[in-house]
Amino acid sequence: MSTPLDFANIQGDILEGLPKKYQTFLFFVIADATEFRHRLTDIIPLITTTVQVQADMNAINEHKAKGHTGLLKLVGTNIAFSHSGLSALGIDPTTLGDSLFTNGQLVDASAGAAGLSDPGPIVGSGTDPAWDPDFKKQIDGCILITGESQQTISERLLEIETKLAGTVKTIKELNGNVRPGDQAGHEHFGFQDGLSQPPIIGFRTPNTGEQPTDPGLILLGEKGDAPLSNITRPPWAKDSSFLVFRKLQQFVPEFNKFLAENPIPDKNLPPDQGSTLLGARLVGRWTSGAPIDLDPTVDNPADGKDPNRANDFDYSNDLTAQTKCPFTAHLRKTNPRASIVPGLSVVQDNFRIIRQGIPYGPEVNPDEAESQTTKFDRGLLFVSYQSDIGKGFHFIQRTWSNNPDFPNPGSGYDGIIGQDIFNQRTTTGMDPENVSTSLALPKQAFVIPLGGEYFLSPSISALKTVFAA
Ligand code: HEM
């Protein structure tokens, strides 16, 4: 028997996710480290633990069960630090043994094919990523605040800013919100998100089809934590997790235009349904969330809603034919489940992340829809948690989504997030009748990174004993 996870010691966003309709990310640089360490003591009681999130979720369920329609007032707060934040506080970031964290995300984003391949003017074998300039500045930390309203968030933000006054400088504030009406829970392209998360052993029971995942894939120092560097983690790092943040702009009218112009050529399908099918095959789920591996030809929304159906597939019935799901579908690229080709020296269960992002920006307006051109910035404030960035976010983005030769030579890119700064991106598998047909993806991708950073979301005990003073 392994020791049970200490949910009072784990920040609430990591495993459970802070309950949210709105979320603010405050990126800051530490101006006075000694004073900051003192003031952090006053912030720690405001940090929402996993135990607190579980209580909040119960309160939400009770509120709904009683038939209340309004939202329960709830606020969540988490905090995370970058490598420079650790250094500023006198903690050597290299002791954690994650070189991507130690170098920071800008280095990874600039490194071309050796890294994330973020687009931008070419510099040598890499780029100067076309990021929002604020993300090229030093960012020491991030405070994540969630709530049922922007007002609740503003109150908490003011409380924190008052407590930290003079010790930090704000670099950037970003606001996200769950989309309105029937699009709640859907990202901006219109697809239900947040359906597939690794069921962490000791945290929750797997639903049908889900593979139990060791806590150490997400939490440092727990069973299954196997850093690429082979380092022994410092004892204080136990129950912390690396937080990857990315601001990902989505070009929604352009995505819809592409679907409209490239319907899957099935003579039995009217073009609009051929376009809908192309969208589903690019993602791997219908907009409802129903997996195309279960429902390859027609959407069946009930399969997305039922937790025991939504992940009850592993591509093992479609290992080579791709009649159900293309190799390059975003879902299959980012989690190939049982379909890793023999001979490839990876074990798929080593590469899992927990995703806790939120959409940002306004809905597409009629002018944008009609002109098929983005005029307002919108997308996803992507957040993922993992115990090793090189096996989590970075691996999935670089080795799978950006790699046209995964899973097979010439399979093509993940049409949603795959990046390549030098080569025209193409993909295959979209037409179930002719899976080898190549489809050219537009030069300007549907998703463009505008910035980000790698952070550590420390355990509560680490915050108390190592970060604060
Ligand atoms: C704006 C950018 C993105 C969009 C629109 C997007 C959209 C989606 C959608 C609609 C799903 C299906 C819902 C679900 O299964 O939970 C999904 C799943 C997933 N996405 Fe993304 N995503 C984006 C970025 C990323 C990035 C950057 C990564 C990692 C590098 C990623 C990794 C995953 C993973 C691991 C899954 C679950 C796959 C599975 O377990 O079957 N996504 N995404």
UniProtKB/TrEMBL annotation:
Q: Which family does it belong to?
A: Belongs to the DyP-type peroxidase family.
Which is one GO molecular function term here?
A: heme binding
User: Which Pfam family, any one, appears in the UniProt record?
Assistant: DyP_N
- Which residue intervals define the domain DyP dimeric alpha+beta barrel in the entry? 9-180
Q: Does this UniProt record's set of keywords contain Protein transport? A: no
Output the PROSITE patterns linked to this UniProt entry.
Answer: DYP_PEROXIDASE
What are the record's GO terms for cellular component?
cytosol
Q: Which InterPro entries match?
A: Dimeric_a/b-barrel (IPR011008), DyP_N (IPR049509), Dyp_perox_C (IPR048328), Dyp_peroxidase (IPR006314)
Q: Which cofactor does it need?
A: heme b
UniProt keywords (A-Z) are:
Heme, Iron, Metal-binding, Oxidoreductase, Peroxidase, Signal
Superkingdom assignment: Eukaryota
Metal-binding among keywords: yes
Which intervals hold domain Dyp-type peroxidase C-terminal?
A: 319-401
Stretches for region Disordered: 290-316
Stretches with biased composition (Basic and acidic residues): 302-312
Q: What is this protein called?
A: Dyp-type peroxidase
